Amino acid sequence: FTWNAQGGTLGGSYTSGDEISYGTTIIAPTTVTKAGYTFDVWSYVVGENEPTAEMPTTMPDADVTATANWIYDPSYTAEITSTNASPEYGEDNDVKVVINNLSSAEGQATNYVWTVDGTEISNTTDTFDASNLGVGEHTVKCVVTISNGTDSVTEELEKTITVTKAIRFADEVLFLGNDFMDRYEEPSVHRQNEQI
């Protein structure tokens, strides 16, 4: 009797080539695991017959191969983080996708597609520089696709970034007082203009 876990691990005392006597009751492994996948079902081939989902209840007078079928499932949690959710214009602000507890699978790859306020940006990495976003509230989204080359899972993440201040030519903002005049005016004229 051959248990083909297809890269997975059999639980208990099962091995890939168990010898089972004719007529003995067959019991499938209750635990079978594979990183990045969820176990689905066993499929069975008895002798030269076609594969079937029905497991023989007892060992027949023929070789049996049981093959594990898997569902791609890279268990993880993901979120968008930023250096500052309310930065001033021009302030360094990296926006990044953080993926936690990702189960690794052979040939696995991650792809990122970013949009800001509905417009796709030319960045396919997990981080982009948001320091040039204009003043106001911006909706930042990233579609994350994790693939093993055959199957994939996709998740859309979203974060709001609110940018404050937009004096692009200044390093700092100074308050010059209520009586500041951009050009000299005779005081009485200045007061009169303030009333207008």
List the topology elements.
Blueprint: E1 2-4, E2 9-10, E3 32-33, E4 37-46, E5 64-72, E6 77-82, E7 94-100, E8 109-116, E9 119-120, E10 127-129, E11 136-147, E12 152-163, H1 187-195
Parallel strand pairs: 1-5
Antiparallel strand pairs: 2-3, 4-5, 6-7, 7-10, 8-9, 8-11, 11-12
Structural account:
With 196 residues, the protein is mainly β. The chain contains 1 helix and 12 strands; from the N terminus they run E-E-E-E-E-E-E-E-E-E-E-E-H. The protein has a 4-stranded antiparallel β-sheet with strand order 9-8-11-12, with no helix packed on it. Strands 1-5-4 form a 3-stranded mixed β-sheet, with no helix packed on it. It has a 3-stranded antiparallel β-sheet with strand order 6-7-10, with no helix packed on it. Strand 8 and strand 9 (119-120) form a beta hairpin. The longest helix is centred in the C-terminal third of the chain and has 9 residues, at 187-195. The relative contact order is 0.15. The model has no long low-confidence stretch (mean pLDDT 80).
Summarize the model shown:
This protein is mainly beta and 196 residues long. The chain has one helix spanning 187-195, and strands at 2-4, 9-10, 32-33, 37-46, 64-72, 77-82, 94-100, 109-116, 119-120, 127-129, 136-147, 152-163. The protein has a four-stranded antiparallel β-sheet, with no helix packed on it.
**Count of helix runs:** 1
What are the secondary-structure elements, in order, as H or E?
EEEEEEEEEEEEH
Fraction of residues in helix: under 10%
Q: State the separation between the terminal residues, measured CA to CA.
A: 96 Å
Strand order of the largest sheet: 9-8-11-12
Structural class: mainly beta
The gross shape turns out to be rod-shaped
Determine the strand fraction and express it as a percent band.
35-45%
- Determine Rg (CA atoms, Å): 32 Å
Mean pLDDT: 80
For the sheet with most strands, the description reads: 4 strands, antiparallel
